Amino acid sequence: KNEVEQSPQNLTAQEGEFITINCSYSVGISALHWLQQHPGGGIVSLFMLSSGKKKHGRLIATINIQEKHSSLHITASHPRDSAVYICAVKSGNQFYFGTGTSLTVIP
Amino acid sequence: DAGITQSPRYKITETGRQVTLMCHQTWSHSYMFWYRQDLGHGLRLIYYSAAADITDKGEVPDGYVVSRSKTENFPLTLESATRSQTSVYFCASQTGWEYEQYFGPGTRLTVT
């Protein structure tokens, strides 16, 4: 069983395009995290959400608690955005992760 | 160095041997975590710790042992390594449950 599902699994975009990555979850949560994993393997936290919307630079994350869904948007995508984006949810004292969306932005 | 570090970064060991992976953070974060990352499974929580001397199981704890005698250190021990424990292991820390996590660089472990 997968508590967290992401779509798409793979995404290729042209530089400058608007990108959306989706995350759906099946458990009750208190927080949702978006992570970025660089090609070298390092993982960085982008956002932690419990409601509403957050924006950081060209990145926007939204969450709809009722629909159990979150989206990560990247505006004006750039090749340096190429990475794997991972959705994670905190449910009780457990964390569950999606398998990630691999994004490639072509110049 | 400030931050969160893991050692070793790469390790090859044989089936049945005991292996300890180290994690050290300099922020005095209360929470620390161990994850493993495998193709097709994504990240999975092995163990976490809410404070020194407080640890609890995650999603996949079997075959692993943790301890946390000091706030800054959270070692993960494979008491008798198996091939199925070949993986990339990430340590993370967090100041509180509702804050972002900071990840270490990972340890790539191969069990032959």
General description of the model:
The complex is a heterodimer of chains A (107) and B (112). Chain A has strands at 4-7, 10-14, 19-25, 31-37, 43-49, 52-56, 59-64, 69-74, 83-91, 94-97, 101-106. With 107 residues, chain A is an all-beta fold. By secondary structure, chain B is mainly β. Chain B has strands at residues 4-7, 10-13, 19-25, 31-38, 42-51, 54-57, 64-66, 76-78, 87-94, 102-103, 107-111. In chain B, the strands form two sheets. In chain B, strands 2, 4, 5, 6, 9, 10 and 11 form a seven-stranded mixed beta sheet that branches. In chain B, strands 1-3-8-7 form a four-stranded antiparallel beta sheet, with no helix packed on it. The radius of gyration of chain B is 13 Å and the shape is globular. Chain B starts with a strand and ends with a strand. Chain A binds chain B through residues 30-31, 33, 35, 41-45, 47-48, 50, 86, 88, 90, 93-100, and chain B through 33, 35, 40-45, 48, 56, 58-59, 88, 90, 92, 97-103, 105-106.
Model regions low in confidence, pLDDT < 50 over at least 5 residues of chain A? none
Share of helix among residues of chain A?
Answer: under 10%
User: How many β-strand runs of chain A?
Assistant: 11
Strand content of chain A: over 45%
Largest interface, counted by CB within 8 Å of the partner chain's CB: A-B, 23 and 24 residues
Q: Report the uncertain regions of chain B.
A: none
Number of helices of chain B: 0
Portion of residues in helices of chain B?
A: under 10%
Choose one word for the global shape of chain B.
globular
The whole-angstrom Rg of chain B is: 13 Å
Largest sheet of chain B: 7 strands, mixed
Q: N- to C-terminal separation of chain B?
A: 33 Å
Order of helices and strands of chain A, N to C?
EEEEEEEEEEE
- SSE pattern of chain B, N- to C-terminal: EEEEEEEEEEE
Structural class of chain A: mainly beta
